[in-house]
Amino acid sequence: xxxxxxxxxxxxxxxxxxxxxxxxxxxxxxxxxxxxxxxxxxxxxxxxxxxxxxxxxxxxxxxxxxxxxxxxxxxxxxxxxxxxxxxxxxxxxxxxxxxxxxxxxxxxxxxxxxxxxxxxxxxxxxxxxxxxxxxxxxxxxxxxxxxxxxxxxxxxxxxxxxxxxxxxxxxxxxxxxxxxxxxxxxxxxxxxxxxxxxxxxxx
Length: 203
What we know:
This protein has 8 helices and 5 strands. The chain has helices spanning 65-75, 82-89, 94-102, 106-109, 117-127, 157-169, 173-184, 190-201, and strands spanning 4-12, 16-21, 24-29, 43-53, 56-62.
């Protein structure tokens, strides 16, 4: 229904952002909302997917069409809903997920919240060999998050926001506490904290 929404970033929270377009605020759930923190009140393009079920109507948004394509394909896998698909995409590395599926790397896939061995196997069964349109230049160099790193703030608000975002993605208190001490030693933006946390959680 909506290919994308272009507008100003009005709000950023742990679970969603609000994009204002012609006086209307669109609530859009995204894998990592805090990537938009540095773009408050600036114009952005968010590629959207309108999810509709009997009791649910929600907008999900992505930075790229590739992320959106992978999200829609993940929704077709039995056992994966929108929240689970967002958690998988939150690492920001579409190629890494595609490679794991193509290589039948169950041990990597089960590290995402809500993905057990059965679901990982189903992902491989349903999607292997069907993701070329997600990554046309198959198996390119993995996305380097540090290359696009945001300036480092000197406060703990970013850390607390990152923890809220991780909880919203479905990671447990136990998993988060395990990596928190190491993360606290660094001064990062919310986006960087989330990316670094996901790198640790997926090891």
